[in-house]
Amino acid sequence: MITHVIFDLDGTLVDTITCTIQSVESILSKRGLQMSEEFKEFIPNINRFDHIRQKINADYNLSLERKEFFQELVKEFSLKNIKLMPGAERLIKHLYDQNIPMAIATGNSKAMIDIIWGEHGEFFQKYINHFVSAFDDPEVKNLKPDPEVFLVAAKRFSEPPESMSNVLIFEDSITGIKGAIASQARSIFVSKLLINSIEHKNLIDKSALAIESLEHFKPEIFGLKPY
């Protein structure tokens, strides 16, 4: 029986993937460079923005400093219109109406979360019990694919789940779904890009469900009230 739900944030509830790609494209464009398709495919599976900086430096023979890159990325990010992912609002409101407590477990930093909160803070504050940042939270020592951020998020509910098997986790990245599976929760892999990936078929098969969009989620599959 599902009693609690934990969401990843980036790419699962909000379309930060598109914003990240656009922001990095702007950073590269200012230096007379163009993002490759291979680089675009790399971005959805990062678990920290410094990995983007490292790849930029390696692929484009640059020497961007960490602080310089992050400040530029945050500035570019703040100019973007960050939208909720299709189906996110409907699903969250539906779970809320069923008295299912929800949390967010993200690998994003507080600086980026603050930008997202500027767009959708009122919505999340109303429906989401709490969020845990693997990047900033002192209790989380390991990033995804380690399950720690999900375990911390689960225990912080005012009434924690009896077992992680009572928790449903929504994730959109390979690193995230690995962590969700390792946490022993029921996991849903939400990815239009990777759902048919032969390379990751074994991992996808281990998740409870793989869907292209939150719009395709059917609550009744997990014993929840249907829409």
UniProtKB/TrEMBL annotation:
Q: Which Gene Ontology molecular function entries are recorded, alphabetically? A: phosphatase activity
Q: What is this protein called?
A: Haloacid dehalogenase-like protein
Species, as recorded:
Sarcoptes scabiei
